[in-house]
Design brief:
Structural class: alpha+beta
Order of helices and strands: HHHHHEEEHEEHEEEHHEE
Number of helices: 9
Number of strands: 10
Largest sheet: 10 strands, antiparallel
Distance between the termini: 135 Å
Radius of gyration: 46 Å
């Protein structure tokens, strides 16, 4: 009997301990600020207390069956409630731990992904930095060599100048001798010269011819040296521009160097005598004809080329005449990634950004020979231009373009004497090695082997430094040189006939 009482007391104490731990655990689970380490401690506590509670429950049931007293029956039902509370606490703890594990995994995956992206970006940046450093070092070495050559050429030029001065002095002396010779010749016309005078005349004649040949040779050498000096000077200027590009950041590395003023009007080459004139109904065939009719303000006008319907164009007054604008980009407000039909018929607002249309441009240029002028402005508001003699085919040739550079203030970046077919993403005429230029570089253009020049590409601000972003942007890329990321572009045409300027 005493042993049974001790067992019952021990069971009651263990049950009371389990109940207390269970209630405290439930309170902790309800607090959302519990850390993962504390949750693990709670699990271990439950795993340790649970067997004790179950053992105490079994012993209590055993002692209750022996005693069969009514008060112990009530205690039995109370212990079942404790077990249910304990089980419920374990269940909630399991759910909490499961959520904590999933959340921790998600956070770890995010951290690993960010670390991977950071490593990849750092690697790409290091490669680009290495390439830029190598190019900068090569340019510095080349500049140093050219500066040395420039000094040598300057010294040689000074020597040439000194020789020229000597030649001038010799020339003066020769003139004096020639004058004396003329006097002698005059005398010879009156009297017969002696043998000595004849020999003197022959020697003077040979000396004059020798000096004249020597002067011609020296002048040719000086001219060649001057041409070489100019070439070396231009190369030095180009290298200095490139060095300035590499030393600047974002804006500077995609900008022209130095301010460029608008050039004076230059004569255009005359290739035929075709002059644009008014139609019989009074409509002008292009903007130049409108200018000749005293319409000399920038704006939108209606023209009617020969054999075409009337349509609106934007005319820009420049160099004492008017140019027909076929493309204008200034702020990226218009998406130029359009279809073939859009590029054929034109799109945009003539007072803002627009593309006139291949069909309209062809109807103008088929009237005669025209000049194509491209004006470029970088993000530091530096301006450049380039002009071409060109021909544009009709729709049966997919508006094939042929160019021949006339003049400009920037290196050429478009293929010359080559038939360039116009391409868009939905009608690609220049698929090279299964690589679609319009689809990968965005915007319709006269692509050639997917060259790195596109004035109809996506408008990209200079903060985009990745190479792929630049190729998808608005840029000018000569074969030898850096990218020029552009802020604005304008393409205009003008007839080559000088009568249009009268």
């Amino acid at each position: 009997m005493k042993r049974s009482i001790n067992r019952s007391n021990s069971s009651i104490q263990n049950s009371h301990t389990a109940k207390t731990v269970s209630r405290k655990s439930l309170c902790i689970l309800n607090n959302h600020t519990v850390s993962g380490a504390e949750n693990m401690k709670i699990v271990l506590a439950f795993l340790f207390i649970a067997p004790l509670a179950l053992s105490a429950r079994a012993e209590k049931d055993y002692s209750s069956s022996d005693s069969a007293a009514p008060p112990e029956t009530k205690s039995r039902f109370a212990m079942l409630d404790d077990v249910r509370i304990l089980a419920n606490g374990l269940l909630q703890l399991g759910h909490g731990l499961k959520d904590f594990v999933h959340k921790t995994k998600g956070q770890m995956n995010d951290i690993f992904q960010k670390l991977y992206i950071f490593d990849r970006s750092f690697y790409e940046l290091s490669l680009q930095t290495s390439e830029i450093k190598e190019e900068e070092e090569q340019l510095r070495q080349t500049t140093a060599r050219l500066q040395i050559n420039n000094e040598e050429i300057k010294n040689l030029s000074q020597e040439m100048n000194s020789k020229i001065e000597d030649l001038i002095q010799n020339k003066i002396q020769l003139q004096e001798k020639v004058w004396g010779l003329e006097d002698k010749v005059t005398k010879l016309a009156i009297i017969q010269p002696s043998m000595q005078e004849t020999k003197e005349i022959s020697s003077l004649k040979a000396f004059v011819e020798q000096q004249d040949n020597h002067i011609k040779q020296l002048l040719k050498i000086v001219e060649d040296q001057h041409v070489q000096l100019n070439r070396q000077h231009n190369q030095i200027m180009e290298l200095e521009d490139k060095l300035n590009h590499m030393e600047l950041q974002e804006l500077a590395e995609n900008s022209f160097t130095g301010e460029q003023t608008e050039p004076e009007a230059i004569p255009f080459p005359v290739r035929n005598t075709t002059a644009v004139t008014y139609k019989s109904d009074g409509a002008a065939p292009d903007c130049t004809a409108l200018y000749n009719s005293s319409m000399q303000s920038n704006g939108v006008y209606t023209i009617k080329p020969n054999g075409s319907e009337a349509f609106d164009v934007y005319c820009e007054m420049k160099f004492g005449s008017s140019w027909t604008v076929i493309q204008n980009r200034e702020d990226g407000s218009l998406d130029f990634n359009q279809t073939w039909d859009a590029y054929t018929n034109g799109f945009g607002d003539l007072n803002e950004e627009f593309w006139l249309g291949l069909n309209k441009t062809y109807s103008i240029t088929k009237q005669g020979d025209y000049i194509l002028r491209i004006e470029l402005q970088d993000w530091k508001d530096n301006k450049r231009y380039i002009e071409y003699a060109f021909s544009l085919g009709g729709p049966e040739t997919d508006y094939t373009l042929q160019l021949s550079r006339i003049s400009g203030s920037i290196p050429n970046a478009l293929p010359e004497q080559t038939e360039l077919r116009f391409s868009t993403a939905d009608r690609d005429m220049d698929v090279i090695n299964n690589f679609s230029c319009p689809e990968n570089y965005l915007g319709g253009w006269w692509h050639s082997d997917c060259e790195e020049t596109n004035l109809n590409g996506k408008y990209v601000a200079p903060r985009s430094r990745g190479r792929l972003d630049r190729r998808k942007g608005l840029y000018w890329k000569p074969k030898k040189g850096r990218y020029y990321l552009l802020k604005s572009t304008k393409i205009m045409i003008h007839p080559t006939d000088l009568k249009s300027f009268d």
